[in-house]
Amino acid sequence: MSLKYSKAAVELGKRLVAQLDTGDDLLASWMAHDVAERITLAEQAPDEHKAAARESCAAAISTLWHYRAALPPHLKPLGKLEPVLRTLASLDTDRTKHRYFPQALQEAATADADGTIKEQIDLAVSLDYTARQLVQFALRTAADDAATDAAPWVKLAREAGADTSPEEFVVEWVLQGKPRTSDDERYKADLRRKIEKIEGFIESAKAMIISLRAQTND
Angle at the Cα of 174 (from 171 to 179), degrees rounded to 5? Predict the structure, then answer.
């Protein structure tokens, strides 16, 4: 997607220039200087050349943003999010179906079972849910600082009309896990439900430890 010349696009370009022009990478510095020169030309070109200068400027910014993932690791605008993105892609924590033994658990959840069998099936489904909640908590905690740093980039790029996926997904996903206000009752109620589930998870784990130890005669 090619950007159109706009105030947001120029601001994105200036932010990229500041990010890349560190002097410790020759190619990155060259790209930064090239974009900086095009921004200056677009702002100062005479009327008869202004349209062409602005088009060239927007194209340079668009290209540099498009290839942001190919920049040196320490210069990537959203580089801190990459480990989180890779982990999310492998775990797929937001899917609604069960993660472990998905088909078996889905069928088990609706099975006509009684007594101990039904109790253990319910436990398995509950453990699957809690495990995913724990994974999400760990990932949101890991991504918190990175998402905070990335949010201004994503906002500016979105305003400029640039592609912000997949980084925008992570930023929004992390922010969704935070309360909108300090007295957000829905958020607190959701936390209480999660605490209850995790406490049940802990009790189940303790019971399993006791059972396993009994089998080892420890």
Answer: 125
